[in-house]
Amino acid sequence: MKLKTRLLIDYYVGGTAHAILKPLVILLGRVLRRNHDLSKCQDVTIVKLLGGGSLIIAYPALLAIRRLPNVKRLRLVASPLTSAFGALLGIFDEIIILHEDSALALATNSLGAIRRLWRTDVLIDLEIHSRLSTIFCLLTCARNRVGFYTQESFWRKGLSTHLLFCQLAEGVYHFYDQVSRLLGAPPMSFRDASDSFRTRLALSEKIARDPTAKIVPRIAIAACCSELGKERMMKVPEWIDILRRRFALHQPPTELHLLGSATDRPYLEELQRSIMSAWPNIQVFNHAGELKLEESVKLLATMDELLAIDSSLLHIARLLGIKTISFWGPTAPTTRLRISDLAADEIHYAQLPCSPCVHISSTTPCKGNNLCMRFVANPDYPGDRNPPWLV
After folding, report:
1. Which residue, among 85, 124, 98, 91, has the nearest Cα to 9 in the 3D structure?
2. Who contacts 17 (Cβ-Cβ below 8 Å, separation ≥6)?
3. What is the gyration radius of the CA atoms in the chain, in angstroms?
4. For residues 246 and 5, what is the distance between their CA atoms, to the nearest angstrom?
5. Do 3-188 and 219-377 fold alike per CATH?
6. Using an 8 Å Cβ cutoff, are 245 and 216 in contact?
7. Alpha-carbon span 325 to 120, nearest angstrom
């Protein structure tokens, strides 16, 4: 199914299910009076269907939960794409995949997952905006159902046993950390999480190079993101402008590595041709679709710098302790970048009045005409920084 179809199903089917089930759930909650103490939960399940980068951001909190002495099993419910990031982290005992090829496949997979999770100890729903994920957790009859609500998702009240407020204007990692504290585990420090992640991938400690030495840097580019918020991406000529300004100040590399998935390959092939045309002496390697996720991460670990938009690879690079140069527009860096002392973060953000909009509005006000990325690529872009977006 296309993303738009999935979102419409989530909104209308999920909203209808909420209206039908909520009075019954509230009544049963008052009658049964179940014990909702989280301190002794042994079987913990995380629900995250969209956005593998969110799992990376939540990793310090998830790692703390994994290391709780009372937690015997940590599971993940995810889509096929997100499940790859769960496997990369290496902290889950089981990953339950919900295929989304069709509505029938999603319904069938969901029913199978509900049977496997029937009356489990606790489900933690990291899908902050989804209605159907709330219904999924509810139908498992899990003793504890932890979820989030925003200023708009008041409808979750009464359906989750533990409901945490998520302020979308603040760092989402703060709210992931609240979950681990709720279970009795202070989140791991970013450095400890990084050490654990590198150990999981059998990576040696990264040795910092002498900044005064004339060493040609190894640079990777992550120019693509998931289909959820394509407005984060820039046009190929804008990447060329960014590289041209960067190479005027820093020694250009002898090679560049483009990272992405198989679906990103056409875009990255165009970027590859443009870079090679502008700088014939630079070798450009397009790894999109050629490497599995873990192979891409291990290649990324050998790099000195990553140039990226807001994407999962950016958050992985930070976890690896690699210097990042990131470009932001429809999302705000303060809401996604956990403070880290591992490596330098060079952040470029054109904070237009309509930014951030992704994750806050179901439809971006520009309808894809992401001027915020024009300005971040070229601060002198001759456009209106406050256009009157009309519906």
Report:
1. 98
2. 131, 132, 135
3. 22
4. 40
5. yes
6. no
7. 42
Burial of 331 (0-12, 13-18, 19+ CB in 10 A): buried
Confidence (pLDDT) at 117 = 96
Rounded (10°) CA dihedral 61, 65, 68, 71 = 180
What's the fold here for domain 219-377? Answer: Rossmann fold (3.40.50)
Mean pLDDT within 38-54: 92
Distance CA 20, CA 82 (A): 30
Residue 24 CA to residue 28 CA, distance in Å, equals: 6
pLDDT in tens, 188-241: 999 999 999 999 999 876 544 555 555 668 999 999 988 878 889 999 999 999
| Degrees to nearest 5, angle at CA 177 with 172 and 183 | 140
Domain boundaries, the chain: 3-188, 219-377
b vs e for 120-145, b when ≥16 Cβ sit within 10 Å of the residue's Cβ?
Answer: bbbbbbbbbbbbbbbbbbbbbebbbb
> Distances in Å between the alpha carbon of 185 and those of 39, 181, 302, 389?
9, 5, 32, 45
Give residue 315's region: left, alpha or beta (phi > 0; psi -120 to 50): alpha
pLDDT tens by residue, 26-39: 777 777 777 788 88
Q: Which two tokens stand for residue 53?
A: 């980068």
Q: Which amino acid is at 141?
A: C
- Structure token digits, residue 91: 């902290």
Among the four given CATH numbers 3.20.20.150, 3.40.50.2000, 3.40.640.10, 3.40.50.2300, the one describing domain 3-188: 3.40.50.2000
The reported pLDDT for the residue numbered 65 is 96
**Whether pTM exceeds 0.85:** yes
Pair of tokens at residue 384: 């209106």
Token pair, residue 174, equals 């703060």
Cα–Cα–Cα angle for 111, 263, 321, rounded to 5 degrees: 90
The number of beta carbons lying within 10 Å of the beta carbon of residue 379 is 10
